[in-house]
Amino acid sequence: MDKPAQNFATDGSFFDKECMLLYDYFTLDILEVNRACVEKYQYTEEEFRRKKITDLGDKYRKSVADQLSNDEQFKLPAIWKHYRKDGSSFYVQFTFHQMKKGGKNIQLCVLHDISAEIPELNKNLHHLPRIDTYKEQLPLATVEWDRMAKIRDWSPKAEEIFGWNFENILGKSLFKAGIVDENQKSLIENKIQEMTAHQTTYFTFSSFVKDGEGKEIHTNWHNSANYDQSGKLISILSLIEDDTENKIAEERLKDSEQRFRVLSEASTVGVYLVQKGKLLYVNPMFSKITGYSKGELLNNFDPLELVHEDDVTKLLTIRERFYNSEIDSFEVDVRARSKNDSEIFVRIYGSKIELKGQFAIMGVVIDQTRQMEVQSKLNQSIQSYRDLFNSIGDAIYIHDENGKFAEVNKTAEEIFGYTREELIGNDPMMFAAPGKVDEKKTYEYIKNSLNGQRQRFEWWAVRKNGEVFPIEVTLTPGKYFGKNAVIAIARDISTQYDQQKELRHNEELFRQLFQNAPVGIAMLDNQNEVQMVNRSFEDIFEYNIDEIRGVNID
Hints:
The chain is an alpha+beta fold. About 30% of the residues lie in helices and about 30% in strands. Strands 2-1-6-5-4-3 form a 6-stranded antiparallel beta sheet. It is rod-shaped and about 175 Å long.
């Protein structure tokens, strides 16, 4: 539509036969016309450009419809009576198409001559005030009112927005009817005075009112003044945009933003917003974590500048995956540098959002420096415990509540010949010597210990290589990661067992020699009192041991 009006079409096609014009969506000023319009209306292009589309004729309502045929294509309200330059008239219906040109909202209007379908009704026509030819099918409501703010015309869209029907609203005041807030009366009157003083034709205002049911109605009014030939203001035509949903959404958004800001400002974690590699928002905790003020961080600060040089690549990879839409959220642990160049440990969470039509990242930063220090000390403590645990010369193993191995030390691995991985989760009967252990009794020991009773017993074990050996076991009730457990200490007593066996053997040999000697033998204590005698002694002296035990040999 950037070509001159006479170039709409030149080949006798639809565009050349139908009257077509362009007019300003808000001021109604005619901007361009095609050749068919010039021929039909008998005005020159320059004369057209000095007119509004409302200057071309009058709009008619129900009285015309009552006398039309039943043909559905001519339903009201889209019928107007237009006038040529010589005063002759014809009937038209409009077809509209909205577009933009030169930054303006403009309307392409096709004027269809329907005179052949309309009988001669001049003497019966009810003449209504000349108004905007915007029709009811458009999204904007149309209202015409005079200088006293009394309503002269009212479209169905206005009825939909405000709830007043056409018959009941005509003649009423915009302010009294609650269409416009009465507090704006002075403002609007001043605008009208200023407009008429300078013969301008356009002004706008916004209004907020509540209907009888308390429903909020937010509207934007685009107003165009109609003057007569002497410059007197006849009426004001308003195109009304219902902005209620947008305003309510804005208020909700403001409430949401306020709630977010309140929560964010009081948050114990850092909150950030990044777009195009720059920080757009940080909360107080983010500043506290990094040591930088909000003013130092915002708008010109790339958050990667805060990251430790050894971890920058990690963040760059995540950022690239974000831009390539491979991921929508992330969680990563990195080292960072505070303003005083101290090393801090942080966990960063981020999610992709859309901000003003562009990709952005919003998330939180959790300072884990203290936790890392605590964890480091804990790890050192655990390592110290494990070193001590493994340095003990006895086998130590921990039974869980089900009697299974929960932990073992190095000595246990060495004594039994199994690795820690082989032992954890297994039953102690796995190294019970076959035929030498009472399984039921073993579980009773463990159960009694879980019930708080310390147990001590000897037990026969078998190494992984099949070697059977004795152990002395002590079971002590305890806790392991907050749960009841049994701490077992097992000592290999093979050497002691062998020594005791040898001692018993020697004692038996001595007893046999003592009793079977052919000579009388008496064992005396330090006071020369008889402690034991052999059979030969009893035979010689005819005393048995019970008669002389404790008697001085002399």
